[in-house]
Design brief:
Blueprint lengths: L3 H5 L27 H15 L7 E5 L16 E4 L5 H11 L4 E7 H5 L3 H10 L3 E7 L2 E2 L5 E2 L22 H7 L4 E6 L3 H13 L3 E7 L15 H7 E3 L1 E6 L14 E5 L5 E6 L9 H14 L2 E8 L6 H4 L12 H4 L3 H10 L2
Parallel strand pairs: 1-2, 1-3, 3-4, 4-8, 7-8, 9-13
Antiparallel strand pairs: 5-6, 7-13, 10-12, 11-12
Helix pairs in contact: 2-7, 3-5, 6-9
The chain binds iron/sulfur cluster.
């Protein structure tokens, strides 16, 4: 039963594993007041708290940029690695291979991911390393004073007036092309949509990509920007209503009228997808390509879960990595026997 202190302050109410929401926080943010990234941080804290995940079992990764500073602002009791620019996926891949038991989350930006880190982004998806990869996408390099990034939309304008003449990279389309089994887009200010998407991504057995439009209040929040608060609020079209149901909660969804669909993850958790206006099946990869290409050509901003395949095989399984964290293996377990080495030598003759 909640104590009077906890009733007065929800941050002090413990979850099912006895940890308060306050304990899922990190250090105080040093970002500009109003930065979209701080909202994403709050949603991440809520998701981990709601899912009763012990921060000690979490590994968080980031690269360089305003967004990559944010893992310091959540789950201070977890493991973290702030990698060099664009190289976070390599570090996350190594960590995930060395320890299959951790819950992995990566936070990067459009600069860190879509330019210097593009090669690494491609290969972490191709390998299907289990982690939730959030891109806090604001279309500019905030840390270096607001130049266009590779995800800036063609025709969008900088604060000082110059126009972007190049096509923006759609990270959701790219992730789909690479075979990603969980592809979503959301808006930092939309807690209702962000929360179930984060929880679903954390339940996915592979790389889950979430492209989150997260406005830069200082350099890209003006008229002419396609990543400003106003533009997103005016143009956001959610393709479905999303819910998340933990594995321990039974649900009763009406399948008959075609308005809802339930996708179940191997761990028993479920995502519920409720039709809003359009007919959309998030388990149909071709439909995801179609809707995203159409949106791009029309200049529409679609958000929601574009594609989910809950039964993908993570790379550790493909590579037959043992379930035991490598650090816990004994020397006898990791060192090949004399007979095994002799067999290898013989096979090479
Ligand atoms: Fe956020 Fe932009 Fe400030 Fe960076 S410069 S902290 S992205 S508002």
């Amino acid at each position: 039963m909640a104590t009077p202190e906890a009733r007065a302050n929800p941050m002090l109410t413990p979850n099912k594993i006895g940890i308060t929401k306050k304990e899922y926080q990190g250090s105080a943010s040093t970002l500009c007041t109003g930065c979209g990234h701080d909202s994403v941080t709050l949603h991440i804290i809520s998701a981990f708290y709601d899912l009763d995940i012990d921060p000690q079992n979490v590994a968080k990764f980031s690269g360089i940029g305003c967004s990559s500073k944010t893992p310091a602002y959540f789950l201070s009791g977890s493991h973290g690695f702030n990698a060099v620019h664009g190289r976070m996926p390599s570090v996350a891949t190594g960590a995930a291979m060395a320890n299959r038991k951790m819950v992995n989350i990566a936070v990067s930006g459009d600069g860190d991911t879509a330019s210097i880190g593009m090669g690494q982004f491609i290969h972490i998806i191709r390998r299907n390393i289990p982690l939730l990869y959030i891109i806090e996408n604001n279309g500019v390099y905030g840390l270096t004073k607001g130049q266009f990034s590779a995800t800036s939309d063609k025709g969008s304008a900088l604060k000082k007036g110059s126009t972007n003449l190049l096509e923006g990279i759609d990270l959701c389309l790219l992730a789909l092309e690479l075979g990603c089994g969980y592809v979503a887009r959301s808006f930092s200010g939309d807690a209702k949509q962000m929360l179930p998407l984060i929880k679903g991504g954390l339940s996915h057995r592979g790389t889950a990509v979430m492209d989150v439009i997260s406005p830069c209040i200082t350099f890209n929040n003006h008229e002419g920007s396609t990543k400003s608060y106003k533009f997103v609020k005016d143009h956001d079209q959610a393709i479905q209503e999303i819910g998340f149901v933990p594995s321990y909660t039974p649900i009763d969804v009406d399948y008959e009228d075609g308005t809802s669909k339930v996708v179940e993850f191997p761990n028993g958790a479920k995502i519920t997808l409720k039709k809003i206006e359009r007919d959309y099946d998030a388990t149909d990869r071709n439909a995801a390509f179609k809707v995203l290409h159409e949106a791009k050509s029309k200049g529409e901003l679609l958000t929601g879960l574009f594609y989910v395949d809950p039964n993908t095989r993570p790379f550790q399984e493909v590579a037959q990595i043992v379930e035991t964290p490598l650090v816990q293996l004994t020397v006898e377990q990791i060192r090949p026997s004399k007979a095994a080495l002799a067999e290898v030598m013989e096979s090479l003759k």
